[in-house]
Write a structure and sequence with these properties.
It is built from 4 helices and 3 strands. The protein has a 3-stranded antiparallel β-sheet.
């Protein structure tokens, strides 16, 4: 995988985790439905499944049911660190990740 592909994948992971963070207000006890929202980011169903699998394996989200997830405290902290200091890499997101998504 080249650098461009890696940055694209990292950005997609950030964008999707940020979506879950926003939907849950960063609250790890709030369960959110991701299906319709992920499609709003123009991710296919297959891409969404891939993103959730990665985020789950990294301990950033918890799968609650087929269409529902919650952000973990680790996931909320990871987003918070990146939003606070976007130029600094975090454990999961490098300095090239753009944090000013809508």
């Amino acid at each position: 995988m080249d650098q461009v592909d890696h940055q694209k994948i990292e950005q997609e992971r950030f964008d999707f985790l940020k979506l879950i963070y926003d939907l849950s207000d960063g609250n790890s006890s709030r369960v959110v439905s991701w299906r319709d929202r992920g499609e709003n980011l123009r991710f296919s169903g297959e891409k969404i499944t891939e993103l959730i699998k990665y985020l789950y394996q990294e301990g950033l989200v918890k799968i609650e049911s087929e269409n529902n997830v919650s952000i973990t405290d680790s996931g909320a902290n990871e987003i918070g660190r990146k939003l606070t200091n976007p130029e600094n890499p975090t454990e999961h997101f490098g300095e090239g990740v753009i944090t000013n998504i809508k």
